[in-house]
Write a structure and sequence with these properties.
This protein has helices at 9-18, 23-32, 57-78, and strands at residues 42-43, 82-86, 98-103. By secondary structure, it is an alpha+beta fold. The chain has a 3-stranded antiparallel β-sheet. The protein is elongated, with a radius of gyration of 21 Å.
């Protein structure tokens, strides 16, 4: 696992709020974030309380994977670099498996660039400027 790409909780929350997820999936995903540790990961066994006690481990694992898949599909649909990941080694059991989120950091205060939108792809050409250069 490459821990250098794990996003902090604040970025994950912002991105999840912006993803095109149905209300139930978004609510569940945001509720799971209360289990994020100081290393920005969620221990799978910490999610046990989020599911009815009547579900067996296989059902819980399927539910977790469905939610992570929905998050990843929504990120792809929106065209952003964001992924919900889970450690692959199932032999470690729920106590040894982790969930984390990777991608680009969400800027809490993105700059307003409306005036630059029309300039996309245009290069500065000093020979096209007439008059004296600014001082």
């Amino acid at each position: 696992m490459n821990t250098s790409n794990i996003l902090p909780l604040s970025s994950v929350e912002k991105i999840l709020h912006d993803l095109p997820l149905n209300d139930r999936i978004k609510t569940d995903a945001l509720r799971w974030l209360k289990h994020v540790g100081t290393d920005h990961r969620i221990k799978v066994s910490d999610l046990d309380g989020e599911f009815p006690s009547t579900l067996d481990r296989a059902s819980v694992n399927r539910a977790i994977n469905r939610l992570l898949d929905a998050i990843n599909k929504a990120a792809t649909t929106k065209g952003i670099r964001f992924a919900a990941e889970i450690s692959p080694n199932k032999r470690d059991g729920a106590a040894g498996r982790w969930i984390w989120f990777t991608g680009a950091l969400a800027d809490p205060n993105p700059p307003n660039t409306r005036e630059l939108n029309g300039a996309r792809g245009k290069l500065y050409n000093p020979s096209a400027v007439s008059g004296d250069p600014p001082i």
